[in-house]
Amino acid sequence: MAERKEKFYITTPIYYTNGLPHIGHTYTTVVADVLRRYKRMRGYDVVMTTGTDEHGVNVERAAQKAGIAESEFVARMADAWRALWDELGLTADEFVRTTDLKHVRTVQWLFKLCKENGYVYKGHYTGQYCIYDNAYVNDAKPGDPCPDCGRPTETVTEENYFFKLSAFQKPLLDFYRKFPEFIQPETRKNEIVSFVEGGLKDLSITRTTIRWGIPVPGEEPHVFYVWFDALTAYLSAVGGPEYEKRGMWPADVHLVGKDIIRFHTVYWPAFLMAAMLPVPKQVWAHGWFLMDAAKMSKSKGNVVLPRPIVNMLGMDALRYFLLRDVVFGQDGNFSYDALVTRYNSDLANGLGNLASRTAAMLEKGFDGNIPKPGARLPQDDTLAKEAQNAIGEVLERFDKFEFSRALETIWGVIAAADKYLTTEQPWALGNSPDEESRKATILWTTAELLRIMTALAHPVLPDSTAKVWTLLGQATALGATELDGLRWGQLVPGTKLGKFQALFPRVDKTEAIERIEAMANEELNPTPAPTAAPAPSTPAGGAASAAAPAAGAEKIAIEDFAKVEMRVGQVKTAERIVGADKLLKLTVDIGSEVRQICAGIAQYYEPEALIGRKVIVVVNLAPRKLRGVESNGMIVAASVGPEGRPVLAGFHEDVEVGARLK
Ligand code: ME8
């Protein structure tokens, strides 16, 4: 009988539905996905859960503002979150919504267990309440104004159910001592331990002033209050009351941001202990991505969105940057400059360049086959040893969640391979049998190194490493490759190389940043649609608004199309722009005048070949500067393939310069 694989259960927080994911949410979810892929490659049976936290007064208000029912509002938002995760390749194994019936039942069941065990009692909660906004104001004192509307708050007392958190001070401290790995990183542990040592107050876990929540059975109008509801989602996702059947609970790791560590390491284990259920093995709290040293928020106007970055550089580039640039656990500043710099240096010039160089040399020298290596020289052995040692080192670093250091090790080996090629110069070797044999050894060594580094980097760069794997003629699925079986020397001579697919085309930094920022700006402040239909997307991190996504694409009226003036133009001159790899500066005759236009086509079109060519020009676009060069119009091109290769639009018949397109 096949042995059951060891299980590994990973969660991200369940995110609030009053905005769409920004780079912070994307970060946690990317890490969960990296771990999932990594653990699968280590032979585990893995489940990863994410989801949406859909109850509470904020949703009540947002739905009201949108003029729709709460259930409709959260359904739209949950769809939008799920769709964006799918688009980013971050589809979880379980997506839990707190409005799911299975979750509702789990929360009610957990409450029942806690109550039966004597850890829940009815009491009175007194707090400052804003009667205009229908909400308690946390931490407010009598007389304080409401931070939302500025009107005075009132002291209100309501009947609540309380959870006896105070009874768990000792059990929690004992638990932290017995399982020192429970709170990670270490620095956060000390903070939590001193908080618990300072004494724990009982916790109000129901409300009668909120409507939009899970009802406490037989106790209406009581509904569960935020954390008792939200945290339980981790359990509902893997079976709820029947968790034993699924065999995934307890969670192996809850990934969270440092903002919510207390709820996960104090409240959550206490709820589970009270219900006598197994407690998670670990809570890992990472730091924040900051923008200009401040936490991102829509009101500050400093949120970074994932989609524009992915459109420009690809998802692998974003994943790499998030994991490479910041030590997991610490805060980090997000900067587009650093992102594009890393992209060009580590991905385009690093992995991408090594793969394309190696493939080109194998194509030229060995007809696209992996050669049989000849005698080895000490420098070949040194490189082999470095790659072999990296395997253990990278696995160890992944196991410790030291993602940045794991990548550093892999990229160190890639750099060593680059240096090796530069020193060994296989391209300078001739055709004598000795030289052929030397060339075979060098290229086999490089290809083998590439195979190993590709497998190790796969959890972080799933798409691009799969391309390199195919290029190296590997028939097995990379994601199913067991990292524990990875060894130097497994690359079989005679293997036919697979198809070469472009990996990371170099980008011009200024231009790339400009384009990312323009796309982000459009996503955050969408051009209003001309019809009365709701806006197509909701700005990330935004205050809850009516802008839950509408189904179907927007249509525009003919008058809107007519606003765009396009004419046939003819290229008069074309030249490259110093310092901008992608841009060409053109002068184009559009009939009435000759315009200067910059076009991002330099990587695909030789300037000389464009002279005399008829193109389509958008002539009524506001002028703008690209790399300091004025551009007065836009040349129309199709965007082809995942890299968006531009292909100029044109005509098969002769057309007059200046003719208008309709
Ligand atoms: O707190 N940097 O949901 P939420 C890094 N619903 N990570 C960030 C970040 C940033 N700037 N901003 C957000 C909630 N995050 C509750 C959770 S769980 C039972 C309930 C990430 O939508 C980080 O993981 O406010 C943080 O903990 C989470 O998003 C908060 O998401």
Structural class: alpha/beta
Which percent band covers the strand fraction? 15-25%
How far the N terminus sits from the C terminus, by CA atoms, comes to 69 Å
Number of helices: 20
For the biggest β-sheet, the strand order reads 3-2-1-11-12-7
The counted number of beta strands is 25
Determine the fraction of residues in helical runs and give it as a percent range: 40-55%
The coarse silhouette is flat
The protein's oligomeric status is single chain
Bound molecules: ligand ME8
Rg, rounded, reads 29 Å
Instruction: Specify the biggest β-sheet.
Output: 6 strands, parallel
Mean pLDDT across the residues is 91
Give a structural overview.
It is built from 20 helices and 25 strands. It is α/β, with parallel strands linked by helices and 662 residues long. A six-stranded parallel β-sheet has the order 3-2-1-11-12-7, with helices on both faces. Strands 16, 17, 18, 19, 22 and 25 form a six-stranded antiparallel β-sheet that branches. Strand 16 (566-577) and strand 17 (580-589) form a beta hairpin. The N and C termini lie far apart (69 Å). The model is unreliable at 529-553 (pLDDT under 50). Ligand ME8 is lined by residues 13-16, 24-25, 27-28, 53, 230-231, 233, 256-257, 259-260, 288-289, 295-296. Ligand ME8 binds next to strand 1, helix 1, helix 7 and strand 11.
